[in-house]
Specification:
Blueprint lengths: L3 H19 L5 E9 L3 H10 L4 E9 L2 E14 L2 E9 L11 E9 L3 H10 L6 E5 L2 E8 L2 E6 L12 H8 L9 H62 L8 H16 L2 E3 L13 E9 L8 E6 L2 E3 L5 E3 L1 E8 L1
Parallel strand pairs: 1-4, 5-8, 10-14
Antiparallel strand pairs: 1-5, 2-3, 3-4, 6-7, 7-8, 9-12, 11-14, 12-13
Helix pairs in contact: 5-6
Amino acid sequence: MLNTQKGLKSFADKAVNAVKKSIGLSEIDFDHICIQAKSTEEYEQLLKNLDEDIIPLNELPHAGRRITVAKLLKPFEVQGVSIDKIEVSEPKPKRTVKVTGFDHIAFVVRVNFDSFIHKLKENNIKISEAKQIGQDRLIKFQEGKIEIEIRNNRIGVERDDDTLDERIAEEKPAGKRKLSETDELHSLLEQEKEKRLRALADYQNLQKRTENERGRFMGIANASILGEILDCIDDFDRALKNLKVDENEQVGLRMVREKLQKIIDGNGLEEIGCKLGSIFDPNACEAVGVVAVDNDEENNSVREVVQKGYRMKDNGQIVRPVRVIVSKKN
């Protein structure tokens, strides 16, 4: 998968350079950087990978695909530009995207949008795409290998309510006839439909976040309980090992021990494999002792397993690390 954090900073630096070279930053503000996924699966996986780094603001259905707008929990600055928002996009239907990666950088104008476009044309900047989506107008152009998007409105943000005449005047092309009453009603209907779609997307996003949080809290609670049961199993094993009676008199203890083991197995817990002589893995093991060795080959290897470790099968969460004795070179 994409190394998002490192790649994001690198792309932002190149993109801001491209903007400064072509149009400058005096009349525009940063809006977002787009990450284009190559498939639906990549889109969902990318959002999952970014879960701890972003706060989703909105999921917008657009042109048969989903677009998630999110705020970075840790914004950063590139050449005086604060990078604080990203857009994660599914590919358009029937469009082939070969690699998941950064697609474009977007800015929003602080001045009149038409005047800004006129200024671009005067500076011989070739506009590669221009379109309007509801009240949002945008253009795109290339600067080297970087695609730059200029918008009249921030993505996923509703404008303040204007009067009907102001809305119509903004959406009406220059030199065209006035909109009829039917056209006005149709325009208002489209705006209301878009608002409801966005409200529905907000509600669906809230449901997803709530479900994810519930699952995460339940996982933490289950891991804590299972860890205590593992301690009980260890106590049973020590008691059975040191009990000075024959096996017939141990039947009751063994039955209880087997029931506890079934609880562990039924809740998706698995033992963490740790072989003697393997390299010490701090992500799965905990060193509780050190043995001195004389050669490099045995350095930082597992010499003895003191206590077994376990993790959840479904997500790999460590419930209890393997406690080991590790070798260290003198």
